[in-house]
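ok so i was messing around last nite and threw this chain in just to see what happens. nothing serious, just curious
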Amino acid sequence: MTNPSSVGIVSAQKAVFDQPIALSSGVTLPRYELMYETYGTLNENRTNAILICHALSGHHHVAGRYQESDKNPGWWDNMVGPGKPIDTNRFFVIGLNNLGGCHGSTGPSSIDPETGTPYGSRFPLVLVRDWVETQARLADMLGIHQFAAIIGGSLGGMQALRWTITYPQRVRHALVIASAPRLTAQNIAFNDVARQAILTDPDFHGGDFYAHNTVPRRGLRLARMLGHITYLSDDGMGEKFGRLLRSGEYRYSYDVEFEIESYLRYQGDKFSDIFDANTYLLMTKALDYFDPARHYGGDLATALKEALAKFLVVSFTSDWRFAPERSREIVKALLDARKHVSYAEIESAHGHDAFLMEDAPYHNIMRAYLNRVAAEVNA
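result:
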């Protein structure tokens, strides 16, 4: 029986863009495709659309299942659906796989029409502002001139923030969750260690591993294991795994002994089966390069001066990757720019991944804010 709070069985769609796009890197892609999904109904005035921007390893499948037997629903199913905080009875919700991704949108593993082989190392770097440009083109294609809200966590929050600067007229509300105005040196360092694990894998072949019928699985696995550690909190990890041993006794070897070792290796193996190494490199560089204040003398308030949106900024107490202090930097810049902003710091033991978790205080804040958005746009 279908869960009434689920969007149910969904299917993805592909949008084809024959209009070239000039990327921030200086490279022009002559054409590209974006994979996306929608949930809910666009109202007559086209005022109730919400765009969900995904984080590093996310994609277009935000909610629902492709078939009843699917083990897992979309990556934000606890947030999106009938009666949920992002209520599909009221809003028309769009999730898409960003350009450069590996879940159906044009990316490094796609076939380059000029060569008939995967782009591989020839696929250009793509920045957050490029993603926003492609998302705007998808909105044009769907007949959406202004979003009721653009929402994203982590790297997704950066996209929501970028939208308000690049297209101020097209965003009524931006919900920036567990994000940051730019990465710290420590965060860039984590990303580079992850990239080095991939770049030095003998199976990487300079990014053209597709031609060798292999995958740099070892590097991708290590990158994911490193990343996963930073997405959790020490307390959360301790509560879930502690120093539990698989066999109950020390074996004095380098094999898996602690449960946390087993968990991380499982996560690394699973990720290396479903994700593309070149996309991982591209996504982490997009994170590193994000700095909307760069062309405004380093002043984020000046960068946000033209924004017309209202903002909700949310952080989580145990998130040390994008700590609450980073969200408060965004809030301060918005206040300095005299923008309307609400801020919530949620008590949570789940670290950076808290923005994906079902948590009553967090969901209540999202629901309350979006109820006001719905009333504004008559959704």
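not much to say yet. The mean pLDDT is 97.
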